[in-house]
Amino acid sequence: MIPYRLFRYTFLCLIPLGIGACKNAENPGIEKQSPNIIWLVAEDQSPDFFPMYGDSTIALPNIESLAYDGVVFDNAFSPVPVCAPARSAIITGMYPTTLGTHNMRTHKSWDQENEPTIDIPSYSPIVPDGVRMFTEYLRKEGYYCANGPKEDYNFEKTQAAWDESSEEIHWRNRDKEQPFFAVFNFGVCHESQIWKRSNDSLFVDPAKVPIPPYFPANEVVRHDLAVNYSNLKRLDDQIGEVLAQLKADDLYDSSIIFFYADHGGPFPRHKRALYDSGIKVPLVIKFPNNEKAGSRNDSFISFIDFAPTVLSLAGIEPPKVMQGLAQFGEYEVQNKPEYTFHSSDRFDELYDRLRAVRSSRYKYIKSFNTNISHAMPVSYREQMPMMQNLRELYAKGALNENQEFWLHPTKPEEELYDLVKDPYELENLAGRDDLKDTLLHYRTVLNTWIKETNDLGRYPEKELIYEWLPNGEQPALPPLEMEEKEDGIRLISKKSDATIIWKHPKDSLWHMYDSPLPLGTSFEAKAERIGYSDSEILMNY
Fold first, then answer.
1. What structural domains and CATH numbers belong to the chain?
2. Of the residues 22, 83, 145, 189, which is catalytic?
């Protein structure tokens, strides 16, 4: 396993925009401002459905206005084409295959029984040393961090990560003048809403929706696509409410606002697929005072880059353990990524390990089990009318070559696509003699990444669970130790990378511990770390 080291970061404040003052490292007498940062997160959507990416099927005025004021990214990607593993990457700056969160899903906070049909419990992988939810670093520097409402990180969240995480979160709940980081998740465009809203009002004519060449242009497909466009209208309305509140509070201009989706679209061959329809996401970032408004950016940005980028924008040096790179801010890297890397493993009750690497020209996909169809019969997806329709048409031999490939009972070991000539990834070039060198290059790049990032997908999941939970339970952190010194009460954890949190006895909010508490303070404290049960509560009354 690759050793990871976490260096204590140095807090430097960035640009004099937003709210919340901190000291300037170069001129300690001058205060700078920490920017407010807002994430607007859509579920299950590809860029191809949005006006800023060329689709005029439906107007989305609020999202379009944000794109007009911000920067549109043409090469933003999720490392995994499904939500929980993707969110583990977003919140840590790490590849799910390195964390052990590559399967969908590992941790189910609402149920100890996870996938009983294959005897997989709900568990939190023990992540590499030093890995934390990145909002801990923001909170330590005075940010108010709020998430609403979806968590689903593929591990049990740490209480140090958020000041609040609920459906009622809002920046207005923070202390006056406190800088904030707020995440608003929108589930109205989730995969499940295709069948749950099948009979709701449509805001587009199904006869006029564009059909990608890998789908048949029939009534069922058109209707499901029209439902999705209609859900995007509902999404746009909800985003408009948040933007209006920011403007009403005179925060819009000075804030940094991200709009993105957690992976590709909700349809078959989108979600759970390593084609661009599954991993490419819309991304708009509005910078303070609409800097670079209306421009486009073609740099490669992966979800593993989000955490270090936000920290950098807040003037915080990203920890060295993070595999992602800061794309903007104080610690922006000069050499931007040339490739993005992607994985597929267990989806609910079914396993299928695939890996992929993508550049601006080519994508290479490696399958580790060619005897399994790309279109695994995941029971959740089988509820979608389009999925049922595709299966019926395939059984009848009524699909053309482009439409039936994904549904074949087997798949090739290697796939290579020229993304410039073939953006829909329909022609597999892996067998072309004139591209042998290209195939070898991308195969080597992918194998190197698998080795260097310690891809845990090579191990059976049950072996990993046994290693992490040898007694069938998450290991517990040792009790905290307390020392009273002249400078205050010091709290110590024997687990060096554990986070220590404390609160007043009657409070519900846990605070980050990073300096001695005043002598005589009544408190409760504990240690926490991803993959471990919290230490027992230390009470000092």
1. 21-333 (3.40.720.10), 342-468 (3.30.1120.10), 481-540 (2.60.40)
2. 83
What's the pLDDT at 228? Answer: 98
Query: Of 529, 465, 469, nearest to 500 (Cα)?
Result: 529
| pLDDT at residue 319 greater than cutoff 90 | yes
Nearest alpha carbon to residue 165 among 204, 139, 191: 139
For residues 82 and 96, the answer to whether their CB atoms sit within 8 Å is no
Residue 90 · residue 43 · CB < 8 Å = no
Question: Average pLDDT over the chain, rounded to whole?
Answer: 94
Contacts of 224 (CB under 8 A, 6+ apart): 194, 198, 267, 384, 385, 386
| pTM, full prediction | 0.93
Assigned token pair, 292: 């670079």
Q: What is the pLDDT of residues 389-419, one digit of tens each?
A: 999 999 999 999 999 999 999 999 999 999 9
Amino acid symbol at 246: L
105-127 mean pLDDT: 92
Distance (Å, whole) CA 34 – CA 334: 23
Q: Is 28 exposed, middle or buried (0-12, 13-18, 19+ CB in 10 A)?
A: exposed
362 CB-near residues (< 8 Å, 6+ apart): 416, 417, 418, 419, 438, 442
Peptide bond into 149 cis (omega under 30): yes
Alpha-carbon distance values, 422 to 313, 427, 429 (Å) = 36, 7, 10
83 is catalytic: yes
- Are the C-beta atoms of 497 and 463 separated by less than 8 Å? no
pLDDT at residue number 347: 97
Looking at this protein, which amino acid is placed at residue 500?
A: I
First to last CA, the chain: 43
Burial status of residue 110 (CB atoms within 10 A of its CB: 0-12, 13-18, 19 or more):
exposed
What was the pLDDT predicted at 112?
79
Q: How far apart are CA 307 and CA 141, in angstroms?
A: 15
